Amino acid sequence: MFKKFLAILIAVVMVFSIVACSKPADNDTKDKNTDSTESKTDENTEAKGETDFHIGVVTGTVSQSEDEQRGTEGMIAKYGYAKDGGLIVHKNYPDNFSAEQETTIQQIVSLADDPKLKVIVVNQGVPGTAAAFKQVKERRPDILCFAGNSQEDPNLIESAADLVIDPDNVTRGYLIPLAAKKMGAKKFVHVSFPRHMSIELLSLRKDIFEATCDKIGLEFAMETAPDPTSDIGIPGAQNFILEQMPAWVNKYGKDTAFFATNDAHTEPMLKKIAELKAIFVEQDLPSPILGYPGALGLDLKDAAGDFPKILEKEDEKLSQLNPGRMGTWAFSYGFSTTQALIELGKRMIESGENMLNTEDVAKVLSEMTPGAEWGATVYRDRTTNEDRPNHLLVLQDTYVFGKGFLGMTKEEVPDIYKMLDEFKAKNK
Predict the structure, then answer these.
(1) Residue 24, SS3?
(2) How far apart are CA 154 and CA 87, in angstroms?
(3) Cα gap 22→335, rounded to integer Å
(4) How many CB atoms lie within 10 A of CB 235?
(5) Pairing of strands 219-224, 88-92
(6) For residues 203 and 195, is the Cβ–Cβ distance under 8 A?
(7) What's residue 49's pLDDT?
(8) What does the pLDDT look like over 311-341, one tens digit per residue?
(9) Residue 213: how many CB atoms within 10 A of its CB?
(10) Which residues face 387 on adjacent strands?
(11) Residue 242 near residue 289, CB atoms below 8 Å
(12) Any residues with CB less than 8 A from the CB of 70 and at least 6 apart, and which?
């Protein structure tokens, strides 16, 4: 199945810009809290002379947001740095963004000092993004402000952004446990920490996970891991996962699907799941390059930016180590949405058209990921039952190594909120 998929895509996907998928050398992330690493504009860039406008992009560093960083680098290779006459200005927010929120806000707001700037893309939309967007709009109401994977209250970010894109965590709350059961799981373990559980969509998804497990016959459990933005830092949080996974697999059994809400926890979790033969459906922000290369010890330099080739390499290894029990999306969520938001902003400025709708957003996402189908829906506030037109949820099918696509986007999804209410009523 994968070879057929690869054959369809391989000719088209090479339009992706060459970006590095391995961890960077030290000089790749120097000055993390200011401008991102400078590099020469690719000789194949589409930037021809001075552009009429600029797009500002703010992402995390490779430590916590590698996919978003690499997606930006791909668009820089395509359209050029603004400083070189191209399109894009790129900055990084701090790794410890929770404690350095003012720095994050300053990084975003400083982009508005550029008189040619017309679009700002922040992915992931960490705390401080909404406050920064409001300051930008006060100074420059002409600037389009886009946020990907917001970590702030929906009402807050919706009031400040022209567009918010999140993974469809409502629908995924049902589909991920269902996929786990298809992959042989008898139990489902949700690994997170208090800061993430204070994020409305993540907390809602956890509740849907639990209600779905009850509905389809999986045992649901929760485990707590250290927050990588706390004093323990990323290394400490990752070491905790490495040490705990054997105990958790022993506690719950090999036929258990584990899910982590944090990117930094993902690589050590994948490493141990592959070794211990447990189950993993997909990442919080699914991607073939989130956690898998490091966990499997793969050198993907010759496949950089070529997602079908990356999948093929990972498939070869996991088909031997733990076939049919580990998955992801065929194209990176963070990489794809970063590129799509940049492209969407570019097209809107050039055409003068309003493209902030499900049809145009899904179309751009599909164009940025040849062969992959995306669905986009409008976020509905559960409290008010009102649609939020500037907040879209997107979804892609699950790919299981050694098995292929599960067809999760074709599953009939029940009335999730009704299911959740029934579960809560039953467990009062």
Answers:
(1) coil
(2) 30
(3) 14
(4) 11
(5) unpaired
(6) no
(7) 57
(8) 999 999 999 999 999 999 999 889 999 999 9
(9) 23
(10) 380
(11) no
(12) 19, 20, 21, 62, 289, 305, 335
Q: Residue 415: which region, alpha, beta or left (left: phi > 0; alpha: psi -120 to 50)?
A: beta
Helices (H), 140-296: 154-160, 169-182, 194-197, 200-216, 233-252, 263-276, 292-296
| Phi, psi of 339, rounded to the nearest 5 degrees | -65, -40
CA–CA dist 25, 2 (Å, integer): 32
**CA dist list (Å): 188 to 273, 295, 311:** 13, 21, 25
Cα separation values, 54 from 78, 129, 334, 348, Å: 14, 19, 21, 13
Contact call for residues 361 and 390 (beta carbons, < 8 A): no
Q: What is the pTM of this model?
A: 0.74
Question: Computed over its alpha carbons, how large is the radius of gyration of the chain?
Answer: 20
Structure tokens given for 414:
């029940």
For the chain, what is the total number of helices (H) and then of strands (E)?
15, 13
Q: If residue 47 lies in a helix (H) or strand (E), which one and from where to where? A: none
Considering the chain, what percentage of its residues have pLDDT values greater than 70? 89
Task: Give the position of tokens 């179309």.
Answer: 363
Residue owning tokens 């020469």: 40
Helix, strand, coil share of the chain (percent; to 5): 45, 15, 35
Please write the tens of the pLDDT for every residue from 39-77.
333 434 444 457 899 999 999 988 777 889 989 999 999
Written as one letter, the residue type at 219 is E
Position 216, amino acid: I
- Is the Cβ–Cβ distance between 129 and 145 less than 8 Å? no
Question: Which value, to the nearest 10 degrees, does the dihedral of the CA atoms of residues 62, 64, 68, 70 take?
Answer: 20
Closest CA to 265 of 288, 285, 250: 285
How much is the mean pLDDT over the chain?
87
Which residues 6+ apart lie within 8 Å of 393 measured at CB?
Answer: 165, 166, 167, 168, 169, 170, 171, 376, 377, 378, 379
Q: Give the whole-angstrom CA distance, residue 344 versus residue 328.
A: 25
Measured from the Cβ of residue 50, the count of other Cβ atoms closer than 10 Å reads 10
Q: Give me 151's structure tokens.
A: 């970590």
Of 117, 90, 82, which is closest to residue 36 (Cα–Cα)? Answer: 90
Q: Looking at residue 318, what is its pLDDT?
A: 95
Query: Cα–Cα distance between 122 and 142 in angstroms, integer?
Result: 17
**DSSP-assigned letter for residue 384:** T
Residue 77 contacts residue 42 (beta carbons within 8 Å): yes
The H or E element spanning position 55 is strand 54-59
Assess contact for 383 and 305: CB atoms under 8 A: no
